[in-house]
């Protein structure tokens, strides 16, 4: 099961360079195996509305949460010490620490393009790496 980082969703929503790679990952992964943090979700909301892409935001919410089965997860305020510890231990900023701790707490692999997460014990996988792993594991 996977925690999709903010940059994964934005790559697809904004049609950036690796949009097709993300699209394949999302198409080939059942939505009930994908998680997103509340922090990532709200960051996406802020970014899309600042870019005047409200219709894309509404489509995203419908596709991911209403029609899909992506789960929204969060970190409780009393767990802030875990975030600070991850920031200090791995030299992460707050948003990367949030993704890392959420993935740790929920036993999820992190899907991201953010190389800062490579400094952590969990590391991260790109969508292409996950697709390659899944292809190798498929019965031919």
Pick out its properties.
single chain, 140 residues, alpha/beta, Rossmann fold, four-stranded parallel sheet, 56% helix
Structure description:
- The protein has 140 residues and is an alpha/beta fold.
- The chain has one domain (2-134): 5'-nuclease (Rossmann fold), CATH 3.40.50.
- Helix content is 56%, strand content 9%.
- A four-stranded parallel sheet has the order 3-2-1-4.
- The mean pLDDT is 96.
**Low-confidence region ranges:** none
Classify the oligomer: single chain
The CATH class name reads Alpha Beta
Helices and strands: which structural class?
alpha/beta
Short description:
This protein is of the alpha/beta class.
SSE arrangement:
Layout: E1 2-4, H1 6-13, H2 19-28, E2 34-37, H3 38-50, H4 54-66, E3 71-73, H5 80-90, H6 94-106, E4 109-111, H7 127-137
Parallel strand pairs: 1-2, 1-4, 2-3
Helix pairs in contact: 1-2, 2-7, 5-6
